[in-house]
Write a structure and sequence with these properties.
0% strand; mainly alpha; 42% helix; elongated
């Protein structure tokens, strides 16, 4: 019986495939350097670029007072609050 291939890493919000994250098993990922495992940016390896952009926009709007905390999208609220 053949072993299953590892699946692509997926975005936590939209479930899109994450670019720049290698498709390796746990043993293969352990051999990689930290910078090769995920991109070096905010929420790298967790959120895709478009979702990261939306979270950063909502964080900026919340800090500037353009929107209230109650107006945040509930799916992105945890990530917006993590940026404090």
């Amino acid at each position: 019986m053949k072993s299953k291939k590892p699946s692509h890493a997926k975005c936590a919000l939209c479930h899109a495939k994450l670019n720049a994250v290698p498709k390796r098993g746990t043993a293969g990922m352990r051999k990689l350097a930290k910078t090769e495992k995920r991109p070096e940016r905010v929420f790298g390896g967790v959120l895709c670029g478009s979702c990261t952009r939306l979270v950063l926009k909502e964080h900026t709007r919340l800090k500037s007072g353009a929107i209230a905390k109650e107006d945040l999208d509930l799916r992105r609220a945890a990530y917006v609050n993590a940026l404090k």
